[in-house]
Specification:
By secondary structure, this protein is mostly helical. The chain contains eight helices and no strands.
């Protein structure tokens, strides 16, 4: 008799707990947390795609004997720095680590952009089909990076609104759902407008 009288109460407690968690945004936190992780994963994929292009770009540019060594060196160093930073899922919850990673990727993007501008001065590079193919791939990758970062920004914004709104902010405090870092303000121009890679200028 005790078991039979206990079961309805157990089910009631479970139902009330589920309702309270749902009403306070617990399930939304689960969904949005996974959404930001997926968006971030795509950002990393596109950054890796860009990093993978650099060795081929460097090898092709080295074929131009008089090419500016300083510009080339900066690209090589920026890639080494960007790829040396270990990124884990916890990076999303660590503003300092996130900022460091972001800065390194920004340096690589700037170095590549500078290299492309300097390359305009070398007719042999502009006429090189292999280099032309690489610049098309780089331009496409920069566009993909922009799209992926914008999706991440949107996902983080939705998550952070939930984390800071009442009463879901109470759930955030109980379950340690802290706001996630987004891309810094100084990088928003680069996010909205990827570097232009154009070797067809006269």
């Amino acid at each position: 008799m005790r078991l039979s009288s206990f079961r309805p109460w157990a089910w009631l407690v479970a139902a009330l707990t589920t309702a309270l968690l749902s009403g306070c945004g617990y399930n939304d936190f689960q969904r949005l947390d996974e959404q930001t992780k997926a968006a971030w994963s795509e950002v990393l994929n596109q950054y890796q795609r860009r990093a993978d292009l650099v060795p081929n770009i460097v090898a092709t540019v080295k074929g131009e004997a008089a090419f500016e060594q300083e510009t080339l060196t900066k690209v090589i160093e920026a890639r080494a720095k960007a790829t040396s930073i270990q990124v884990t899922p916890e990076t999303l919850n660590n503003p300092e680590a996130f900022s460091k990673f972001q800065a390194a990727q920004g340096e690589l993007g700037s170095a590549l952009s500078r290299l492309m501008v300097v390359s305009e001065q070398y007719p042999n590079l502009k006429a090189n089909q292999g280099f032309s193919d690489l610049r098309v791939q780089l331009e496409g990758t920069e566009n993909r990076i922009t799209v992926a970062r914008n999706r991440y920004i949107q996902a983080v914004q939705e998550y952070n609104v939930l984390a800071r709104s009442f009463p879901s902010n109470l759930t955030a405090m109980v379950f340690s759902y802290a706001p996630k870092p987004a891309f810094a303000v100084q990088n928003e121009a680069a996010i909205s407008a990827p570097p232009v890679v154009d070797f067809n200028k006269k």
